[in-house]
Amino acid sequence: MIFDEVHAYDAYMSVLFERLLAWLRQIGASVIVLSATLPNETRKRLLSAYSGNDDLPPTKSYPRLTFTSANGETNTIELTAPPEKLLAFDWISREPQAIVQRLSDELRGGGCAAVISNTVTRAQQLFETVVGANMCDEDNVILFHARFPLAWREGIEQKVLDEFGPNKEDKKQANPHRPSKAIVIASQVIEQSLDLDFDVMISDHAPVDLLLQRAGRLHRHSVNNTTRRNPYRLLIAEPTVNNDVPDFGRSNTFVYDEHVLLRSWLALQDISSKQIRLPSDLSNLIEQVYGDAPLPVSTTEFQAALMKAKREMGKGEHSEQFNARQRIVRLPDDEELLWGDNAALEEDDPAVHATFQALTRADRPGLNVICLHRVGEKLFLEPDSSGAEYDPAVQLSDELARELARRSATIRRPDIEKSLLAEPSSPATQAILKQWRKVALLRYHRVAVFTDGVCRLEGAPYVLRLTRKFGLQIAKEV
Q1: CA-to-CA distance for 147 and 411, rounded, in angstroms?
Q2: pLDDT higher at 387 or 100
Q3: Phi, psi of 273, rounded to the nearest 5 degrees
Q4: DSSP 3-state percent helix, strand, coil across the chain (nearest 5)
Q5: 173 phi and psi angles, rounded to 5 deg
Q6: pTM greater than 0.85 (yes/no)
Q7: What's the first-to-final CA gap in the chain, in angstroms?
Q8: Which terminus of the chain, N or C, has fewer Cβ atoms within 10 Å?
Q9: What domains appear along the chain, each with residue ranges and CATH number?
């Protein structure tokens, strides 16, 4: 089994992952964990969980390969380091107009840029501002996030791969479809598992491992170096600073732990040259943020903010670990394994309480919502009625069920989820959900019906808007 691009994951996932490793060893499965940004302490816990051996070898320089056998013997070997690269970084204003101005300066002679936001809503706002600036053809300004219906998102992802990925015929040659000037504005969907290359990158401030992960899509393909006009540099959208303490805002601390954001900020502020040697500095940066490596704290205000954030993180970790232990399967050698209580947790149903869900992450996975469009008196899968028609009174074919599932988008807003999970008052909506309950693929989906791109929610002061340009937007009812 292979786990790719493993990061410094949360406490909840840590408990589940370690228990999974213990079971994989028991059934004789080989496991490969790939990561460039794994803290030493996390690495040791994973090795111990699989090997059952707490006596692990000393850490060696990165890059390295650590391995353990079924009998618990563990060793580490150093690998040949790739050629060192010097990644420059700089702070810029996070205001949309300032980002537009910086993009205009950076792309004056052409080039391909990525702007990465920590939230979908901010990505949508930045996209609107960038499009309004008319820096390049509108077709070459692409919005890419996880709140597009799957069928639309697949098309966007393919376009991004076709234009900013490698040459499909010969990776040693430049991609002939690469635009001379283009901007991709994306959420975190762009930072993992996509082989993309950009000349310019602007990112919201994030945990340092994720910033470096994002920078992995910057100047990635050497075949494009001859045409680049921009330095190898990551531009980071700077948070507001009050009394020497950065204010990340609720939207960012909802996504990332504030303590990790603060330590990432400190680690980068401590680099006076604003240059990171890769891979030489990578391990130390990760340990400064997630481990025990010291960091200079400049003011008492910052120290107080850091300590408060650490206490809050500790409370959250304790709660997450406790909740995770309520869901884990007993260890393979536990004598109560076959006779103890079985929680029989529900894997898919979003309507049951979180206590009874087999969650694999601390936060709820979100609600899958199928987006349908009312045109006249009929329902269609596409807003211009170009797609298939859907009639809940007609028996559902397997093909149409698959197409319906591909029109789903994931919503991670508790207030919106609550509204969509409530029993609808509309007989038409009731008929749709009644039919879907009989289909395994659709059973736990909910429905949003859009008229002229708008869906009004029952019992919530919000409307959903859906367009091919912005994807799914959540707005206050006016």
Answers
A1: 7
A2: 100
A3: -75, -15
A4: 35, 20, 45
A5: -110, 150
A6: yes
A7: 51
A8: C
A9: 2-78 (no CATH), 85-300 (3.40.50.300), 354-476 (no CATH)
